[in-house]
């Protein structure tokens, strides 16, 4: 990973990759804890951080290392099957926080109800298979993880009179809402989970039968996925984070002092849960991981609506906001968020690095660069890039493993260069244009010059530190730099 | 209270009145606990039971005794003002469960968020004033209780783009849902609270000014009340208990064994909260206490919708269901529920009478008779009756204090007789017809012969014990008696 124009970021992303590899690559069938082995924070527990933040980096850089934590998840299936049964559900309910596979979360509105961890595990399986095509893994681990999580979603959800499929009473990534109906992130990730399970069962009918999967069951999964409800506010023209969210009262950001963040340490949850205030990227996260479910206009409108509500009281937020800020043309903001994700520990931004490193945020630095400024997206067996650099960076270069090949990508301001380092000839997309890559050949494409989109604001006092630019009048955080 | 035709009920209602008076009439500025002084259940705590179940009986039978628990509430105002401030709200937030005025509930989804207790206290104030016209009480206690609770509602709620007023993130009487938006019971009771506070401030402008109330504040209360949002499902033609409720999955009643009730001891709350299953009358309670907000058709449709979802895992349910069953023409069912409320302790129906008597359910026996078969309703300075007896009862007679008079009411099957025992000439309503009562004169009116409405079912296995009738085919609980 080479970053020209910002030595601090270059150093930080090396620091980040070292620690992500340190935490993940040698875990060898153990969980990757939120702090790795660097400190006592979170008491050594693992969360969705592993599958959603750490594994994307490992999958693209050291794919065999990504298989190990998923094999660990698979080893905990008995506990997850048992947990689902306790909850009156089918399939597997993986724990929100855990040491050995048992649920260790006692606070149920944000623990038990955060079912999305199951779809996040499925997403990591799909991503790993996409990168490696490792059929041994799929037969030994992947299929069963997909099948048991799909069963969970089917039993957790239900159809309404109009045939729409709902997932009620869940908590999405944003822990400042809870027990909500039809959280868009959860629903879209569950939709992918259901489809991936049906597809995998189709690939391995013999093994699927061993798990008791028949064609009626896979048809139910596909149908539920097809009819998944996604709440949308027609008047505002934005998706609802969860059903009814945009009708809630706005948090009084102007009346909240800087020393009252993070909010959960200064306000009762009764007050936080019933208002429009977001701890961390939730719908914005859905637009990254399930970008195929949104139009470009929807992404821009949703980003503009949710950005001023998101206080980033979680270190899992900035990197995702960086990715989507870049996609919707907010390159300066994306660059600031890259800085926040990358410098989380080196600058001790949350004043708790003594408790251990934020491994997911460190992984997020890589994500912000590759998915944000590189614009890498995987989707259904294809891979695309939409590179764009902020004015502060002269060059960004990285190597990723996708579709069983290694690709070298180098982006300068006006151009992007793609090189197939090894593997068979491959079609990729560059801004939607198909580009054929043959091993050894270098292909260069122009980067469209997209003007910076009009800035969107953050909650009062919560804009990220600006890196190398000064906000003008009418821009976010004009009073501060 | 005389009940001919059911000696057990006659005996039970005397038992009930004895214990309600025992618990309440000598409390003398102390709280009335859920168990009175009869046992250790609920650790001696008081809840909304006092204002909503016990005080209606005391207000109509021994009104000066009803003033005492309200004076006790008033004495705890400093704690309630402090609690509201802790929660970032204005006015007073009275505790969900308490000994001395401090909140003793630790389980916030069903404790802190059950704000309706504040409107229930206001309702008791309004009811007491309606019965007694006690202006000393209003100036010393009533006005301030109304003002501080109205302030709570105004600060808890907010307007949306269309100007509708919402109360989000609250828990209504039904504790099998929580943290819901626009609970109809809460919204309607808050509406009454806001209006009553504005009216009381209008009556006592000098004193209101001492509490800092000006015309802008009362106008805000009236406007919020006027714009109160009441969610309604147009397709089903029923009100939503709370926003989105009717879209939730139905509880699997057929798959729930008798020994799995009460549900909260056998299923996780995550599962209970996200499904259509009701612990106790909630919307049905709103139709009783705020009957003016519903048409007769709406009441019948709502009752038919919610009755099959209500499992009565709370002893506060049967009496309210008796009242509304009688109003919508389900007289047999009303009679069964009267029996359940009246026999709760004498027959130890919940197998926990050893923990103390269910004082509210005992009060509910009186409520079921007077408000159910007597059809007593108070509304805005008027009082009405809609008497009707189930076939098992030959006669029901009772005396009530209303509008500073004592009325004797005697109902036989075909006729109702009204006598003004003391007080000035009064107009009452008998089935909507104005009847003028002069002291000493007895007025008789016909009781319309209303055919029994088609029966509605209860959740499988949860119908009340039938009293003196056998369900035919196509009727609820046909397999059991």
Automatic annotation (TrEMBL), chains A, B:
The keyword Membrane does not apply. InterPro entries: 6-hairpin_glycosidase_sf (IPR008928), 6hp_glycosidase-like_sf (IPR012341), Glyco_hydro_65_C (IPR005194), Glyco_hydro_65_M (IPR005195). SUPFAM superfamilies: Six-hairpin glycosidases. Residues 472-481 have a biased composition (Basic and acidic residues). Residues 376-437 form the Glycoside hydrolase family 65 C-terminal domain. Gene3D superfamilies: 1.50.10.10, Maltose phosphorylase, domain 3. It comes from the Bacteria. This is Glycosyl hydrolase family 65 protein.
């Amino acid at each position: 990973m080479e970053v020209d124009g910002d030595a601090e970021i270059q150093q930080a992303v090396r620091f980040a990759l070292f620690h992500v590899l340190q935490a993940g690559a040698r875990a060898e069938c153990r969980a990757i804890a939120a702090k790795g082995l660097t400190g006592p924070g979170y008491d050594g527990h693992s969360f969705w951080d592993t599958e959603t933040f750490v594994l994307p980096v490992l999958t693209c850089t050291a794919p065999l290392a990504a298989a190990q934590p998923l094999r660990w998840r698979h080893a905990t299936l008995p506990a997850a099957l048992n947990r689902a049964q306790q909850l009156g559900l089918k399939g597997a309910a993986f724990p929100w926080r855990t040491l050995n596979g048992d649920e260790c979360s006692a606070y149920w509105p944000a623990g038990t109800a955060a079912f999305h961890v199951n779809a996040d595990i499925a997403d990591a399986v799909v991503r790993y298979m996409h990168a490696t095509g490792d059929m041994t893994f799929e037969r030994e681990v992947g299929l069963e993880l997909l099948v048991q999580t799909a069963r969970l979603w089917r039993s957790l959800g239900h159809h309404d009179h109009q045939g729409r499929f709902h997932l009620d009473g869940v908590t999405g990534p944003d822990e400042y809402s809870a027990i909500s109906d039809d959280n868009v992130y959860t629903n879209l990730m569950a939709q992918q989970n259901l489809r991936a399970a049906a597809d995998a069962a189709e690939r391995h009918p013999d093994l699927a039968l061993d798990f008791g999967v028949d064609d009626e069951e896979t048809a139910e999964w596909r149908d539920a996925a097809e009819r998944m409800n996604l709440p949308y506010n027609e008047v505002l023209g934005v998706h609802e984070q969860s059903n009814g969210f945009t009708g809630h009262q706005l948090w009084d950001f102007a009346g909240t002092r800087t020393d009252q963040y993070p909010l959960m340490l200064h306000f009762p949850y009764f007050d936080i849960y019933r208002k429009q205030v977001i701890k961390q990227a939730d719908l914005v996260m859905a637009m990254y991981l399930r970008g195929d479910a949104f139009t470009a206009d929807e992404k821009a409108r949703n980003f503009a609506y949710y950005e001023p509500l998101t206080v980033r009281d979680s270190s899992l937020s900035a990197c995702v906001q960086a990715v989507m800020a870049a996609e919707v043309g907010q390159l300066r903001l994306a660059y600031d968020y890259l800085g926040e994700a990358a410098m989380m520990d080196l600058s001790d931004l949350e004043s708790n690095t003594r408790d251990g490193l934020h491994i997911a945020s460190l992984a997020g630095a890589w994500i912000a660069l590759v998915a944000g400024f590189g614009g890498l997206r995987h989707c259904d067996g294809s891979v695309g890039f939409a590179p764009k650099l902020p004015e502060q960076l002269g060059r960004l270069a990285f190597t990723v493993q996708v579709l069983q090949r290694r690709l070298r990508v180098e982006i300068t301001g006006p151009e992007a260069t793609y090189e197939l380092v090894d593997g068979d000839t491959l079609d990729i997309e560059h801004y939607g244009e198909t580009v054929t890559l043959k091993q050894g050949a270098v292909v260069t494409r122009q980067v469209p010059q997209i003007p910076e989109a009009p800035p969107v604001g953050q909650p009062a006092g919560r804009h990220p530190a600006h890196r190398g630019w000064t906000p003008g009048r009418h821009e976010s955080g004009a009073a501060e730099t």
